[in-house]
């Protein structure tokens, strides 16, 4: 299973309560590949893929771009749910990229 990943900045684990991954730490551009593999693997098995960023302190723009691309490739009813703390400012960052209108991308800020 490719939903496990760890280095000195990031820990990625599968969710225990459903399909998706939970990330801890800082997500840099070098983490795009492992995250894309994990989300793609989940998309092969389910309609709702959750990326839980609630324990994330930093999210690089390039990683957000990968999440947007992955959401664009989904076909409804499939969708990507991003759970994130408000201090990552994802609502504004997604809107700046026009991704706030994607029907296959749902943001849940806390």
Write the layout of secondary structure elements.
Elements: E1 5-6, E2 10-14, E3 20-27, H1 32-43, E4 48-59, H2 61-72, E5 79-84, H3 90-96, E6 105-109
Parallel strand pairs: 3-4, 4-5, 5-6
Antiparallel strand pairs: 1-2, 2-3
Helix pairs in contact: 1-2
Q: Could you explain how this protein is built, in words?
A:
The chain has one domain (5-109): Transcription Regulator spoIIAA (2-Layer Sandwich), CATH 3.30.750. Helices cover 28% and strands 35% of the residues. It has three helices and six strands. It has helices spanning 32-43, 61-72, 90-96; strands at 5-6, 10-14, 20-27, 48-59, 79-84, 105-109. The protein has a six-stranded mixed sheet with strand order 1-2-3-4-5-6, with helices on one face. The radius of gyration is 12 Å and the shape is globular. The termini are far apart. The mean pLDDT is 94. This is STAS domain-containing protein. It comes from Streptomyces typhae.
Main attributes of the structure:
110 residues; alpha/beta; Transcription Regulator spoIIAA; 6-stranded mixed beta sheet; 3 helices; STAS domain-containing protein
């Amino acid at each position: 299973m490719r939903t496990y990943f760890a280095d000195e900045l990031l820990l990625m684990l599968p969710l225990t309560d459903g399909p998706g991954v939970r990330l801890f730490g800082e997500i840099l551009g070098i983490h795009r590949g492992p995250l894309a593999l994990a989300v793609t693997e989940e998309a092969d098995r389910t309609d709702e893929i959750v990326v839980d960023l609630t324990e994330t302190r930093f999210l690089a723009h390039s990683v957000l771009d990968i999440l947007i691309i992955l959401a664009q490739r989904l076909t409804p009813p499939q969708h990507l749910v991003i759970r994130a703390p408000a201090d990552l400012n994802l609502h504004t960052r997604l809107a700046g990229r026009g991704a706030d209108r994607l029907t296959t991308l749902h943001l849940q800020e806390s």
